[in-house]
Here is the input.
Amino acid sequence: MSDYIDPTARCPGPESIRPDATIIAGRTHTGRPCRIIDNTCSIPREELAAVLEGLIAERRFGMAALSAHGGHTLAIGQPNATHIQFGDTLYRILLYPYEARIEPF
Here is the structure.
């Protein structure tokens, strides 16, 4: 996980979202706004909506404490990175407190 993101990173601003990015909004289990952004502009909206619903159901949005690199210090709101596959293509997904971003590798 640490190979994909800077452990001190915060959710990037609107300048890092492509103008043609697909954005689907939702609400967390506590009613807070959240969203998923496809910065590749290649994933069908219904598949993005299904991923967003799954993230909400798993309560993946919200503030959480993460220990970077297994250290003894906790940092609130650190992004989490993993991968996700749509069709035959693998993408990087970055999970911020109230936003999920899909990016190319």
Observations:
- The chain is about 10% helix and 35% strand.
- Helices lie at 45-57.
- The chain has one domain: 19-104.
